[in-house]
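Here we describe the complex-level prediction in full. Unlike the single-chain runs in Section 2.1, the two entities below were treated as one system.
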Amino acid sequence: MAGGGTTSDVRSLVSSLRSAYAATPVKLKIIDVYVLYALTTALVQVVYMGFVGSFPFNAFLSGVLSCVGTAVLAVCLRMQVNKENKEFRDIAPERAFADFVLCNVVLHLVIMNFLG
Amino acid sequence: MTAAEVASPSSGRGGAFASILSIGTLLLIGILAFSIRLFSVIKYESVIHEFDPYFNYRVTQYLSKAGIYEFWNWFDDRTWYPLGRVIGGTVYPGLTLTAGTMWWVANALNIPLSVETACVFTAPVFSAFAAWSTYALTKEVKGIGAGLTAAALIAMVPSYISRSVAGSYDNEGVAIFALVFTFYLYLKTLNTGSLFYATLNALAYFYMVCSWGGYTFIINLIPMHVLLCIVTGRYSSRLYIAYSPLVILGTLLAALVPVVGFNAVMTSEHFASFLVFVILQVVAIVYYTKRILTPKAFRVAVAVVLTVGTIVALTLIAVLIALVATSPTKGWSGRSLSLLDPTYASKYIPIIASVSEHQPPTWPSYFMDINILAFLVPAGVIACFLPLSDSSTFVVLYLVTAVYFSGVMVRLMLVFAPAACIMSGIALSEAFGTLTLSVKYQIELPDPPTGPVAPVDQTAAGATSETSASATAADLAKDKSVSEKGKETLRERPKRSRKKEKESAEKSVVKKAPKKKASKVLPFEASAVAIVLLLLLVSFYVIHCVWAAAEAYSAPSIVLTSHTADGMHVFDDFREAYAWLSHNTEENDKVASWWDYGYQTTAMANRTVIVDNNTWNNTHIATVGMAMSSPERQAWEIYQTLDVKYVFVIFGGLVGYPSDDINKFLWMVRIGGGVFPHIKEADYLRDGQYRIDAQATPTMLNSLMYKLSYYRFAEATMDGKGYDRVRRTEIGKKSFKLTHFEEVFTTHHWMVRIYKLKPPKNRFRGKNKRRTKPMITDRRNEDPPYLWLTTLYRSVEVKCYLAKVPFGDVDGRQLESFWRHKYRN
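The structure predicted for the assembly as a whole is:
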């Protein structure tokens, strides 16, 4: 599909991505790192499961879903506090963070319960 | 819970007055929803209805007695003998916990309710909640007016009443509330994009999972809507926030419910949600990169991602298919399969097909259950499309899927009812909005109608609305796009308190000085006529609903009544039989019957049963089916292996009660034959016809079911011919003796006949003197004319006696001597 100059295209794409991303506020970058961390943890657990097996299935499930859930919630938070996103003008960043904390608390209460 | 919503309805121009009015209306709607369901208590008594509710009642009793931890670990040895059943792990606990909590709260407040009372009134209370959450849901879609109308409609929609009258203590009673409330919170999250509502949404979903297996409907419908939004280009960050946390939290919460457990991630009913979750993540990333990149760079990115992405997607799909293929029944459970392929159940699972509520509905049942809403729904759909929003697409999608499901199973009509109410609420409110607006407009300006657009479509619209029925009036009113702000009071009023409030409603609107110019105005006469017709239509609906609530859906089915020329007859045979069992048999005796009566036997007679309505073990049910269809000797052996002491059958031939065991017998044969091939349906049919008269096959006439049902039946009928009033024929075999069973009790109207298995002869010969005496039959032989008097007298006495003394407190011997005393002369 991406015929001849694939490598140069990809290179220019990467550089434009990088420059576009550099404009992101620091707060959002922190959230991005957090999301990345959570996803990496999930990945590690899945790989570990591949080696060891999924025997205490609820433990595996709660571990992975805890990471994925954290990541998803952080993404939601990122969407809400992003100034460029016009959809959430009536949600203050503080309110967004409070909601985020509440959701996380519920999530991890459930996970603690589910760990068994 | 709706209080929060009610607190802020002043988004319209009505201000404080409108919000107070709508709160008041909502309260009245709640009261209406509650009180319309009390007919069963008024006409009969405060009693648990039907079959499944008895099980729920028994579980609630256990919960209130033993506490929550015991409840989770409850192994019930009184049912499915000798297997038993792990109740805590196989029951949807939502309903039980709700009623248990209500009972506990009431008692903590020093309101001495019995558990039974709490159970009886759970469903009516929750239907009020359901009405309120319907209001909230519809408000999210189309504003307050539509919300109030929809709430009023659902408060009395017959389909929902049929499952939630007082005493109908079943999962659906709370589940419909949970369903609507979950949908409301989803839409609320979608409209606001707030994580707070997303959390609440997950919790509401959890409650729904606790309450009903129908939660799979939610976890498939919401992904469908998300997918629809993505495909139609309506993706937004709000959609992401509404869906992604719901999947993660919802899955985890669902896995907490023991009956669902790992099914929440293992069965394919849930796979759609995960697939859409992944798609949504991808879409979110795509939209994000699209925003930060230049169009050209984005095009390059798409090209790169497509090549990589297809490979990844293909492998993912392969893995998914492999997963599905390895799970049994391809990951779909029987009930869900029968939804997708309506013929599945009848082809493969006779036990599902045998239940009448799993059959497809007939057209009249739509009219019976949703009445005029069936005509209003299309108008509501059109109204939803006029300004198409995320929430209105959701409602339309809900409606479409619910229509399909209701067409597959009668029972799912219940899921369809809220959708129909929401749509009709929107339709009615839009119609009233347009019509009253034009009336008010013309009252204000008595001059010829302003606006150059008016004349053309006035005439067209006017003509149709006068000639055609009022339903079409609603329809065409839909075509006039109406601005609905500030019209809440007006739209609501005529609905709730119909005719007499109309004038005052109009006045109040006039007073509110509407500055808004209606884009299209109908002529005064046309709209006035249309309003009157609509009000008529709505009042027909109200009349129908009240009739349905009072006459059609209030019968508890354990107490039957019939009206004849000489007054009303009450048939209380079921409770009579269960009371007999509980007072005259040993506590650990096992009682066999067809599975329909299992729950009632354990709950009311407190005896161990072989099979019950839970139907989790097909082989066990098939064993009982085989016993019922076998000749006496074999049946006796089968029951002997199951340690059964008593067998009872339901027999309607004497009084004409049609849902008796003889009419269910073919299902027993089918289910039995499904596991034990020597039982063949053809052996019980004469030329493909099911008959019990002289033409019946010998297999039929020798089957245990036939014998237990018709034993001594011919003697009891007036002319000794044995005329069966259900089958409308003379029975085939009249005088026969039972060798391995003996009749121990037959109820007043012969509706329940209890037999005892004779002990094995060779070991106990000569010791048979201590038999229980057949009580009625003896007297019947002595003086037939006296028979009806005695039985009548006795049933009255027994009922009084039972009313005075609670079930558990009567000593068996005491009651027997009571009877002996009564009948000595």
